[in-house]
Automatic annotation (TrEMBL):
The keyword Lipoprotein is assigned to this record: no
Protein name: 3'(2'),5'-bisphosphate nucleotidase
One Pfam family recorded for the sequence: Inositol_P
GO molecular function terms noted in the UniProt entry: 3'(2'),5'-bisphosphate nucleotidase activity; metal ion binding
Gene3D superfamilies associated with the record: 3.40.190.80, Fructose-1,6-Bisphosphatase, subunit A, domain 1
Keyword annotations of the record: Hydrolase, Magnesium, Metal-binding
Protein residues bound to Mg(2+): E67, D116, I118, D119, D262
Group of enzyme by EC: hydrolase
Length: 317
């Protein structure tokens, strides 16, 4: 597993550098809009190209299930975006860029990678938080997870981003982006009688803030809301800077199913830091139903001590 970890960390580091460069110079034309109207940027594509290329060089036989594909970039109308990606990958030919992005068109199987090259694209566009999320799944369970969080200060140092990783059964660790010593992380110790820090999406459309608000009311003044974009929320909880992360289905999209690349890495990291991850009914996440968590609804992530209480409150009818 150590070889997988080394390559995964290198790939995420490399992608994070490009994402930081793009974010620093971001203009509106650097993004295009997908069919579901969600945005995708130059950096999403560059990140996926870099990570897929690195993984395939090292592990040619392992499929990669990435969030993006190059179909839209192959259309003339998006030539500008493709050219811009080329500026950030100066040694790459156009075909190399397109083909590397499409290395992420693999299918979930017994052993595969899943990649969100930029999770929280809306946060990225706001020059706020985003994550690069990569996980290795074996027999339907994440066994290795890496989260690159370029705008999440490492140890309070604003100029250093955060990397987090976990190997199943071996704990969760953090180190600064750019290199440094890895330190083990543990979730908080807070119980239902303490202050309870709730993580939620910045984007109101991505979760049911009002249902979450009603649940928080149970804890009165002790409930605090903390908003972050992306899987950065998992990293914040794993290092004990928050206690609960809820993703409750939004009434406008009651049938929404979570995507595997949005949760595989983060869920493993929180579990290895001592926390608990289930859906809103307390059922463990099942990663063996294709690209979506078809057998689960919503998400409840806690430090473990709060889990039962939250599930109880959510399901008391
Ligand atoms: N209705 C929805 N319910 C839950 N998650 C959603 C919904 N719409 C989009 N998302 C996902 O929320 C994630 C970002 O979450 P956050 O706001 O917490 O950072 C994205 O991966 C996005 O998926 P997608 O990338 O497919 O649009
Ligand atoms: Mg995502």
């Amino acid at each position: 597993m150590k070889t997988y970890l080394t390559i995964a960390l290198q790939a995420v580091e490399q992608a994070a550098k490009i994402c930081q460069q793009v974010q620093a110079q971001l203009v509106e034309e650097d993004s295009l809009t997908k069919k579901d109207r969600s945005p995708v940027t130059v950096a999403d594509f560059a990140s996926q190209a870099i990570i897929c290329k690195r993984l395939k060089e090292a592990f040619p036989e392992i499929d990669i299930v990435g969030e993006e594909d190059a179909q839209s970039l192959r259309q003339d109308e998006n030539r500008e975006v493709l050219n811009k990606i080329g500026q950030f990958l100066p040694d790459w030919s156009v075909d190399q860029i397109l083909d590397s992005i499409d290395l992420g068109n693999g299918e979930p199987g017994a052993l595969f990678w899943t990649l969100d090259p930029i999770d929280g694209t809306k946060g990225f566009l706001r020059k706020d938080q985003y994550a690069i999320a990569l996980a290795l799944l074996k027999d339907g369970q994440p066994v290795l997870g890496v989260l690159g969080c370029p705008n999440l200060p490492f140890n309070g140092q604003a100029d250093r981003g955060t990397l987090m990783y976990a190997i199943k059964g071996e704990g969760a660790f953090t180190l600064p982006l750019g290199g440094g010593e890895a330190k083990q992380v543990h979730v908080s110790d807070n119980d239902p009688e303490d202050v309870v820090r709730f993580l939620e999406s910045v984007e109101a459309g991505h979760a049911n803030h009002s249902l979450q608000g009603r649940l928080m009311a149970h804890f009165g003044d002790r409930a605090k809301a903390v908003r972050f974009d992306s899987q950065v929320k998992y990293a914040v909880l794993a290092r004990a800077d928050a206690d609960v992360y809820l993703r409750l289905p939004n009434s406008e999209k009651p049938d929404y199913r979570e995507k595997i690349w949005d949760h595989a890495a983060g869920a493993l990291i929180v579990q290895e830091a001592g926390g608990t991850v289930t859906d809103m009914f307390g059922k463990p996440l099942e990663f063996n139903h294709g690209k979506k968590l078809m057998a689960n609804r919503g998400l409840v992530v806690t430090n473990g001590k709060l889990h039962q209480k939250i599930i109880e409150l959510l399901n008391r009818g």
